[in-house]
Specification:
By secondary structure, this protein is mainly beta. The protein is built from one helix and 17 strands. It has a 16-stranded antiparallel barrel. The radius of gyration is 19 Å and the shape is globular.
């Protein structure tokens, strides 16, 4: 299986809901979404994404491809209406990381999950972990707290007592006027490790263009797109800036968009500026499908 690793997390997503009509003899009504089929770039530094959906518009597959032996591939399944199962593999040359996660839903929204993390290099296991995630939301349905718990080992090597000594921390999402304004990532520490701040245009969208937060793996990003983690930002993202624990700016991503006749993103340019004079711009094309 050929896989590939991501470099710059840019996941442009817009969803426009259209309700189909059926007669009594047809299948039950269900929403059809305008969702991306592919997001591509001709730039050597850009990534190419492909999306797969089931008949109800739920994401079933996602691939992000940069170069040979660099990327990620994910499969999603839905054993029942309250569960999402995920199998993900990330590859970076001779290092492969395997994720398996089961997300529990409450009223269609992620409430908690449990998964495993296995990293190998040249078929030698480097690390094995089991993790749990718990999600909390604001009264207006925005994700604002993600609690992380991790222990070493997987399967039979993990006991109930191990969770009493687990590695725990919380990350925080701060919202303002319906937009995610700040993301505080503690990354297992007692103080904030990195802070990401977001700026928005006045253009309101039915669904955000960029998925700004990665919980602990890229496989969560398409689920953010589909509202599994609550409402996304109301407005079009203009920029995101990452600061280190001392408040120093690491990099900023700026976005410029072009729209098609359906008011969906047709293409966009992401410009990455570092805390030096260097910057790099990458153009992306979005292809849409009715799902």
């Amino acid at each position: 299986m050929l896989l590939i690793k991501f470099k710059v997390p840019t996941f442009p997503i817009l969803i426009l809901a259209i309700i189909t009509s059926c007669s009594n003899n047809d299948e039950p009504n269900y929403p059809v979404f305008k969702q991306p089929a592919a997001i591509t770039s001709d730039d050597i530094n850009g990534g190419n994404q492909t999306f797969e959906y089931d008949g109800y518009g739920k994401i079933t597959g996602w691939i992000l491809n940069y170069k040979e032996n660099e990327g990620v591939i994910v499969r999603y399944s839905y054993p029942n209406g309250n569960t999402i199962k995920i199998e993900s593999e990330e590859v970076f040359f001779d290092t492969r990381t395997y994720w398996e996660e089961t997300i529990q839903l409450l009223n269609g929204r992620a409430s908690k999950s449990e998964g495993t993390f296995l990293r190998k290099q040249d078929d030698v296991t480097l690390i094995q972990k089991t993790y749990r995630l718990e999600f909390a939301y604001t009264p207006d349905n925005h994700l604002n707290i993600v609690k992380h718990s991790e222990i070493m080992g997987v399967g039979e090597n993990v006991t109930a007592n191990d969770w009493e000594k687990s590695w725990n921390w919380e990350n925080y999402l701060i919202w303002e006027n319906g937009n995610l304004k700040e993301y505080e990532d503690f990354y297992g520490k007692s103080i904030v490790n990195t802070t990401t701040k977001y700026e928005y245009s006045t253009y309101a969208v039915a669904y955000p263009v960029i998925i700004p937060v990665v919980i602990n793996s890229w496989h969560h990003s398409p689920l953010f797109m589909q509202g599994v983690f609550g409402l996304n930002s109301n407005n079009l993202l203009k920029s995101s800036s990452i600061f280190d624990k001392d408040g120093n700016l690491d990099l900023t991503r700026h976005y410029i968009y072009e729209f098609n006749d359906e008011d969906l993103i047709d293409q966009y340019i992401e410009t990455i500026s570092y805390n030096t004079a260097f910057s790099n711009s990458i153009s992306y094309k979005v292809n849409w499908t009715d799902k």
